[in-house]
């Protein structure tokens, strides 16, 4: 009987936080990777989604609620990317620490400046549009650094004893990414590609950062599968603009891109847009590296 | 030994109260910490400023946008589900048919949800439907739920009782156009839906293990119609859910209900249900599969002879392409077998679901009763649309 009560007491989350690492739950694998760069060995972080899982389409499974129940901090992308499932997971977890408005709730989208904020009224006839801005900002290395900085401040707030470590880690991350950014900028310039077509609007921040022109998407509207009419008009655009590179985000199939290839000479490259979406994208650096090398491959095949 | 036990119970409860108080305190801090820069959309933002993302800009918010966003934030989420039907069946032209032939307005559900404050969330569903030729507005669910209690959720109001796999669903989220036969016969046309209180506790186990205690007024026309006005009935519901893999889950639920009935005796209600769900994590929108089996039985005690009615309903839903569904259901009412015999209902459904907001579903039903010679055949076509911000459905 005694052991049962002690057992139950322990499970009630009796405040032993001072001795335990911060339990962090990220919604995506990319956010998890950024959190690891900032938190290092001082936090324990896991991700709700798996690499090959598209974060748009996640169901609020009760097992996610169980994981959220133990979390001290939840890190989400925001800009309504997870609006279909995260509020339910937070409610179902019955963990008041991670509710929106509490320090244990961190939405990365609130710490960066978004693009494609909708000026006019959006409604569902335009597809799956995010009115507050394009939520795929983690693919911009500069914004990734901003997120890391904001995250280090929040971690320091929740775990003041390790503040110095978080600050050092984020400085190292910033130095590393800024250094790589020089290389990536140079390589993308030399790749010989100016205009690209993508499947969804996932790569827009990346393309802006490295000065590519986005001709259009294979989806006629976000979340709507490609129609024959739209594919034909896309083929015309590619011919007119003399573009040669189609980047298909790894979550989507390449059938439509293959159909375009039959009508016009293009290179198709499958790119990861989240960490672990493909085998090569093992962490944040490797993720951006994978996209940059796909563009280089596009360029080589074009010349060759 | 008894004193020791009391002492432990006291410590346990006081620790819990402290935790509850601590959480209530944290719940009242609704403002994000001061060092965060809140970004708001602004109408004058120029995309070409992108070369260097400057967080300092985010503090300058245009008045119009701030007003817009606060209006949006203070309004509840409002959604409307409209269900329209067309029916044709061999018994649909009978005067007393519950499923008449022709075009029919099945139901219009309006739902309002909102966080009321840091402590409560409100959820209201009003249904507009036709009854005896007249349109009526019925409050389907009106309840308030706590937000900040750790491990517990308390719900007060009028709501569907959690029992089995189907009773708590709103009409627009029924897996088929209609309810399973067992639900309709055992729980009544409106289902088990009463004014009461529910306390749900999430047990701290590595799998999802929830216990829900529900207490409500004993006025369900089929089950609990107690003669004394203030009688209450209760249902205890236990839900277990395990991840079998990244892509599949298994759920097992048990329910037990108890209340006074119109015969002056007690009604006992039993439910057992299992659900297997599969959805791959890659290209997850393109296919999925679900299989549920639900047993329901009611046992109404009375002086003359106890009445036991029960049955099983089992259904499968197969999403074989991104927008297409093929479903089948078997209902058997006759556990235990009645003097009048058993009733069997077989249903097949073919659905086109282009987005989560609209669906066109074609269903064929075959109903055969031992007591009747002629079986019933029926074809129904339903248009099911959702307007507004509807909260996500439960898993």
Structural class of chain A: alpha/beta
Shape of chain B: globular
Number of strands of chain A: 8
SS summary, helix count of chain A: 10
Instruction: List the uncertain runs of chain A.
Output: 13-18
- N-to-C SSE string of chain A, H for helix and E for strand: HEHEHEHEHHEHEHEHEH
What's the oligomerization state?
heterodimer
Query: Kindly state the mean pLDDT of chain A as a whole number?
Result: 91
Largest sheet of chain B: 16 strands, antiparallel, barrel
End-to-end C-alpha gap of chain A = 76 Å
Shape of chain A: globular
What is the radius of gyration of chain A computed over CA atoms, rounded to a whole number of angstroms?
21 Å
Biggest sheet, spatial arrangement of strands of chain B = 1-2-3-4-5-6-7-8-9-10-11-12-13-14-15-16
Element string of chain B (H = helix, E = strand): HHEEEEEHEEEEEEEEEEE
Biggest sheet of chain A, strands in spatial order? Answer: 2-1-3-4
Largest inter-chain contact set: A-B, 70 and 67 residues
Strand content of chain B: over 45%
Q: What's the pLDDT, averaged over the residues of chain B?
A: 83
Radius of gyration of chain B using CA atoms only: 25 Å
Q: Give the helix proportion of chain A (percent range).
A: 40-55%
How would you characterize this protein structure?
The complex is a heterodimer of chains A (304) and B (395). By secondary structure, chain A is α/β, with parallel strands linked by helices. Helices cover 43% and strands 12% of the residues of chain A. Chain A is built from 10 helices and 8 strands. Chain A has helices spanning 2-11, 29-39, 62-69, 86-93, 141-158, 163-190, 204-209, 228-241, 255-263, 284-303, and strands spanning 22-26, 43-47, 73-76, 105-107, 195-198, 213-217, 245-249, 267-271. In chain A, the strands form 2 sheets. Chain A has a 4-stranded parallel β-sheet with strand order 2-1-3-4, with helices on one face. In chain A, strands 6-5-7-8 form a 4-stranded parallel β-sheet, sandwiched between helices. In chain A, helix 2 packs across helix 5. The radius of gyration of chain A is 21 Å and the shape is globular. The model of chain A is unreliable at 13-18 (pLDDT under 50). A 16-stranded antiparallel beta barrel of chain B has the order 1-2-3-4-5-6-7-8-9-10-11-12-13-14-15-16. Chain B is built from 3 helices and 16 strands. Mean pLDDT of chain B is 83; it is low at 13-64. Chain B is globular. In chain B, a hairpin with a 2-residue loop joins strand 14 (343-355) and strand 15 (358-369). With 395 residues, chain B is mainly beta. The chains are: A alpha/beta (304), B mainly beta (395). At the A-B interface, helix 1, helix 3, helix 4 and helix 5 of A face helix 1 and strand 8 of B.
């Amino acid at each position: 009987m005694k052991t049962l009560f002690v057992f139950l007491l322990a499970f009630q989350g009796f405040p032993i936080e001072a001795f335990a690492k911060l339990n962090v739950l990220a919604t995506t694998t990319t956010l998890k990777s950024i959190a690891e760069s900032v938190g290092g060995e001082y936090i324990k972080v896991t991700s709700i989604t798996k690499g090959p899982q598209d974060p748009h389409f996640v169901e609020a499974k009760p097992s996610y609620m169980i994981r959220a129940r133990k979390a001290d901090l939840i890190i989400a992308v925001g800009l309504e990317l997870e609006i279909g499932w995260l509020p339910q997971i937070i409610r179902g977890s019955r963990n008041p620490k991670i509710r929106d408005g509490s320090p244990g709730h961190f939405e990365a989208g609130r710490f960066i400046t978004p693009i494609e904020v909708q000026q006019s009224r959006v409604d569902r006839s335009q597809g799956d549009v995010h009115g507050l801005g394009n939520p795929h900002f983690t693919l911009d290395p500069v914004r990734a650094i901003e997120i890391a900085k904001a995250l280090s401040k929040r971690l320091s707030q929740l775990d003041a004893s390790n503040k110095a470590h978080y600050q050092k880690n984020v400085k190292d991350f910033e130095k590393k990414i800024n250094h790589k950014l020089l290389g990536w900028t140079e390589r993308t310039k030399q790749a010989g590609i100016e205009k690209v077509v993508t499947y969804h609007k996932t790569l827009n921040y990346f393309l802006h950062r490295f000065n590519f022109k986005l001709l259009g998407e294979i989806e006629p509207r976000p979340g709507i599968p490609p129609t024959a009419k739209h594919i034909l008009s896309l083929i015309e655009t590619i011919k007119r603009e003399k573009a040669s590179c189609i980047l298909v985000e790894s979550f989507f199939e390449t059938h439509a891109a293959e159909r375009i290839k039959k009508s016009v000479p293009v290179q198709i490259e499958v790119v990861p847009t989240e960490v672990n979406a493909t085998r090569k994208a093992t962490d944040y650096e490797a993720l951006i590296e994978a996209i940059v090398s796909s563009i280089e491959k596009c360029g080589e095949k074009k010349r060759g | 030994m008894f004193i020791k036990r009391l002492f432990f119970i006291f410590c346990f409860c006081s620790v819990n109260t402290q935790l509850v108080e601590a959480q209530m305190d944290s719940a009242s801090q609704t403002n994000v910490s001061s060092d965060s820069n809140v970004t708001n959309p602004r109408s004058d933002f120029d995309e070409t400023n992108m070369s260097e993302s400057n967080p300092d800009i985010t503090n300058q918010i245009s008045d119009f946008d701030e007003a817009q966003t606060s209006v949006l934030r203070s309004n509840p989420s409002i959604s409307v589900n409209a269900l329209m039907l067309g029916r044709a069946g061999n018994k649909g032209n009978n005067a007393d048919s519950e499923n008449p032939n022709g075009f029919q307005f099945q139901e219009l559900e309006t739902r309002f949800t909102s966080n009321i404050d840091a402590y409560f969330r409100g959820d209201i569903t009003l249904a507009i439907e036709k009854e005896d030729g007249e349109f009526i507005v019925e409050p389907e669910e009106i309840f308030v739920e706590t937000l900040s209690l750790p491990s517990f959720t308390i719900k007060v109001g009028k709501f569907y009782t959690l029992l089995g796999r189907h009773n708590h669903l709103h009409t627009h989220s029924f897996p088929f156009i209609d309810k399973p036969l067992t639900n309709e016969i055992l729980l009544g046309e409106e289902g088990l839906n009463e004014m009461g209180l529910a306390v749900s506790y999430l047990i701290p186990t590595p799998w999802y293990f929830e216990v829900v205690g529900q207490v409500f007024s004993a006025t369900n026309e089929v089950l609990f119609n107690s003669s004394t006005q203030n009688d209450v009935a209760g249902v205890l519901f236990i839900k277990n859910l395990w991840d079998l893999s990244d892509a599949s889950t298994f759920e097992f639920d048990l329910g037990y209900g108890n209340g006074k009935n119109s015969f002056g005796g007690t009604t006992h209600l039993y439910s057992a249900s299992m659900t297997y769900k599969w959805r791959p994590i890659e290209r997850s929108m393109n296919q999925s599969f679900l299989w549920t089996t639900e047993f329901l039985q009611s046992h109404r005690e009375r002086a003359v002879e106890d009445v036991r009615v029960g049955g099983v309903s089992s259904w499968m839903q197969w999403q074989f392409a991104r927008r297409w569904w093929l479903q089948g259901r078997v209902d058997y009412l006759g556990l235990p077998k009645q003097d009048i015999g058993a009733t069997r209902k077989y249903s097949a459904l073919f659905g086109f679901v282009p987005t989560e907001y609209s669906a066109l579903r074609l269903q064929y039903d075959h109903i055969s009763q031992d007591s009747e010679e002629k079986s019933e055949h029926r074809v129904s076509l339903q248009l099911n649309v959702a307007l507004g911000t509807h909260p996500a459905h439960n898993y």
